[in-house]
Structure formats: structure tokens, C-alpha cells
């Protein structure tokens, strides 16, 4: 009887875990293994992939032109993350602590952009910022400028597009951290005579730093791979690592090198997540 019960339990466990395991195996593990293997492959003179394993692809990652793009990618990612923090923190604090009945409405307005494809929204920005776009039309109509401004195909425009796409990813973890603030601590700080600035830096900021860091990860990492933003708004003048990967798989037809670049992105992601764990971050806030 006990054996029968144990078999039933095992069957129920397999029935529950089995589909998820197969899903992760076929859609995560096998593709990742394929990319790792591909990164060590070679190309013949006809650009066909051959399984002659080599480290040449990883050596090419240190090419001077690629290093420049790495540095630019990190600068764009850092700028995007910093702007999202500076704009997102007071915005989220207002929603979580001051909005009252409007809290749900304002939070929903942050979520709504997810309902529309980001590629379409970025094309909207390209139309808005173009020489014949709405912004230049308004500026000329108001006689603020005589000629259309060249706003596209600059690094600053790429950062603007990144902030626009990734801003909700900063707000969501910040909202979770700020909403959990204990009002008793804030009242105690005020009762003890602390100024608002002191309360913020000594009480509020330390208690919400996990939200800042998790939001920073959720912004910083995708920025390195959002190649379509730099393609549409940067015009090739502000490439990120994602652009290198995309070109190797598309126009370059160099899958091994593209795979090696992809592995670098994965390594950066794992290092940042590990750093987040080391400082005591909650993996649930990252959706892990």
C-alpha cells in the first residue's frame, strides 16, 4: 500500500515538473549549449560553419574596433541607468507614497507601454524627432529655430530611446521597494527632529537600495542588447554590443563570432546578477 502511494506521489511530481523541465530543456538549455559550441567553430572560405574547434573567435573579441564599441555600450548603458534612477525614483516615490486613490491609475500608465511593441514606439520617436517631424515643425512655427535641427543619429538620441523603452523596468522594482517602507520608521525619524533630507538619506534610501539595484540591473543589461534602438535612432553612430551580435548573424554571416559575442553578454549578465546576490539582493525582484 505504501509503495502504491509513493508511486502515485512520484507520478504526480513528474506530471507537475516534467512539462516545465522539458520546456526549459528545449527552449533554454539546448539553445544555450548550441551557442556555446558554435562559438568555438570555424568558417571555411565559403563562410560555411565547420566543426573545427578554435579559440580564434574569442581572440577576435579583443580587436580594437570591438573594444571601442564595448566602451560605448557601457557608457550608453550607464547613462541610461543613471537617468532612469534620477527620473524614476521621485516619480515612483510619488506614486507609491503620495498618489492616494490615483496610485493604481498612475501605475497602470507605467505598464501600458508594454501593450505596444517597442519597435513601433521607437519608430514613433524617429518620426517625432525627424527633420520634418512634429518637434521641428513646432520649433519652426514658434520661430525658435530657423532651420530643422538634426536630432537623429546621435548618441544622446539613442540614450533617449533606451530610457523610453526601459524606464518601466526601473519603476516596477522601485515601486515594490518603496511601497514596503514602514511608516513607523518615518514617523520616528520626524519625531526625533530629523530633517526631510536626513530622513531620506538615513532611512528611506538605505531601505530602498535593493529596489534601485534590481532596477539598475533590469535596465543596464537590456541596454547592451537593444540593437534596434541604436539602429533606428543612432543610425550606426552609437552601436552597442547587440549591434555586433546582430550583424554577425545577419549581414556578416559569421555565426561563430556572433555566438562568441553572445556568450560575452551572458557572462556580463551572470556577473551582475552574482554581484546583486553578494550585496543581499532578493532574486524574486528580478523575476528569477
TrEMBL record:
GO process annotations (BP): transmembrane transport
Superkingdom of source: Bacteria
CDD domains, per database record: TM_PBP2
UniProt keyword annotation of Calcium present: no
GO cellular component, one term: plasma membrane
Entry's localization field: Cell membrane
Record keywords: Cell membrane, Membrane, Transmembrane, Transmembrane helix, Transport
PROSITE patterns: ABC_TM1
Primary location: membrane
Alphabetical list of SUPFAM superfamilies matching this protein: MetI-like
Bilayer topology term: Multi-pass membrane protein
Listed InterPro entries: MetI-like, MetI-like_sf
Residue ranges of domain ABC transmembrane type-1 in the record: 70-276
TM spans (from-to): 12-37, 67-93, 105-124, 159-178, 199-221, 255-273
Assigned protein family: Belongs to the binding-protein-dependent transport system permease family. CysTW subfamily.
Protein name: Spermidine/putrescine transport system permease protein
Organism: Clostridium grantii DSM 8605
Taxonomy of the source species: Bacteria, Bacillati, Bacillota, Clostridia, Eubacteriales
